[in-house]
Recover the amino acids of this structure.
């Protein structure tokens, strides 16, 4: 197979890895949504307030922020596969342990620790996938993978309609163990991407000492500007997304009086629409470009979110949530590929994970803010304010972040390899020879 042919196709190894990460993202989504769905029951049993209940989600997100950034750096040094494997093991085990918790602080501690793994799977796993998927279908496939994350929300919501009323919130957390184990089995013994391996081998052959990735991000003006823009975007995106995600079930139960069984079905329908929205956004990103679809999706969400919450009633909320679900996850249908294509291979893991996990600032503050607002006004009013965050999220990439700055599948020849390892920006070298995984395997 020639380099020209192979660059448009995935190797068998790549297909297995992409599938495994997709399954891992489903479990990731299940884990996050289980907390949101179980939160009303946890608060009732443990007799804790809205503010303290929101703090559980905040501690989870704090662990995700710390662990996600660390995982990105480790993936540049140790490999994407190894980091992704242990991340899945960590949060799968942590989710199962919650079933045995007897106090608020036990749950909070476990959620903080398991947050390390949850964030790493999203940041590093999707970065790994981007380095296997050809450019012409990258946005579509990664939109589908991102939809897997929302599919996990749907599965958790559907499980909750039976498990929460009949078996309680502890049993709900046990449901994530089996799919987590399946993901680990699929990743066992798999290799890292050709682009990462080429970068590692170039460093070893050159004999140079690898520079600190964080310092190199800051030293290159172009990379630094992109990194800052993505960090601010991530803060706004996660402020909006996690605020709504954490408090939507409680809004349905407490503000609108929806019972637990119907709440689970409403949430399942909402995230089914989100699955469709992410896939559509990914496909449109391949057709029209990541940036334009990102801006349109973000602005549409900013406008419709407050309107949906304002006009919602127990009778029409199920229909309004379908529109909400279709829109509010749209940026996530583009996020991973847009981010991965913004940085060179040698620092991609560090830059992507750190920029995205800077967004945990927003995701930690948002649930607490809505908790405080709900005391003075209502949960609905707090969720409505999230439209501002979505507007900011849309505008920053629209102005500062171009499409397809780097090719995650790029493998550069000898001297260019060393440049890619030592100097950010080498992926854009016109002398670089881009080949696919099959060409690397037969070289």
């Amino acid at each position: 197979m020639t380099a020209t042919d192979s660059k448009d196709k995935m190797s068998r190894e790549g297909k297995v890895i992409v599938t495994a990460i997709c399954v891992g993202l489903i479990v990731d989504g299940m884990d996050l949504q289980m907390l949101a769905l179980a939160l009303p029951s946890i608060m009732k049993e443990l007799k804790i307030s809205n503010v303290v209940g929101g703090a559980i989600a905040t501690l989870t997100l704090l662990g995700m922020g710390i662990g996600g950034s660390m995982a990105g750096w480790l993936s540049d040094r140790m490999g994407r596969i190894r980091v992704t494997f242990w991340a899945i093991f960590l949060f799968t085990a942590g989710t199962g342990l919650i079933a045995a918790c007897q106090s608020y602080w036990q749950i909070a501690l476990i959620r903080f620790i398991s947050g390390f793994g949850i964030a790493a799977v999203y940041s590093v796993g999707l970065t790994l996938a981007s380095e296997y998927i050809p450019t012409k279908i990258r946005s579509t496939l990664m939109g589908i993978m991102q939809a897997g994350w929302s599919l996990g929300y749907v599965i958790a919501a559907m499980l909750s309609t039976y498990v929460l009323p009949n078996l309680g919130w502890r049993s709900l957390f046990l449901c994530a163990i089996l799919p987590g184990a399946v993901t680990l089995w699929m990743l066992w013994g798999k290799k890292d991407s050709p682009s990462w391996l080429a970068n590692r081998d170039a460093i070893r052959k050159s004999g140079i000492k690898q520079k600190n990735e964080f310092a190199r991000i800051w030293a290159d003006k172009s990379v630094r500007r992109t990194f800052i823009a993505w960090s601010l975007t991530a803060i706004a995106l996660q402020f909006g997304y996690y605020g709504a995600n954490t408090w939507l079930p409680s809004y349905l139960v407490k503000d609108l009086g929806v019972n637990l069984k119907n709440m689970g079905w409403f949430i399942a329908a909402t995230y089914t629409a989100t699955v469709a929205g992410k896939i559509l956004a990914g496909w449109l990103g391949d057709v029209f470009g990541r940036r334009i679809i990102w801006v349109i999706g973000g602005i549409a969400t900013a406008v419709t979110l407050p309107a949906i919450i304002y006009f919602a009633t127990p009778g029409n909320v199920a229909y309004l949530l379908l529109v909400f679900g279709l829109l509010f996850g749209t940026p996530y249908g583009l996020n991973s590929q847009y981010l991965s294509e913004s940085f060179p291979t040698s620092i991609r893991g560090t830059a992507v994970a750190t920029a995205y996990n800077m967004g945990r600032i927003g995701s930690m503050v948002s649930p607490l803010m809505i908790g405080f607002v709900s005391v003075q006004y209502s949960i609905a009013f707090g969720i409505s304010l999230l439209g501002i965050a979505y507007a900011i999220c849309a505008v920053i990439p629209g102005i500062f972040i171009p499409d397809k700055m780097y090719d995650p599948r790029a493998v550069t020849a000898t001297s260019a390899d060393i440049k890619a390892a030592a100097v950010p920006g080498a992926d854009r070298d016109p002398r670089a020879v881009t080949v696919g995984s099959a060409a690397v395997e037969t070289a």
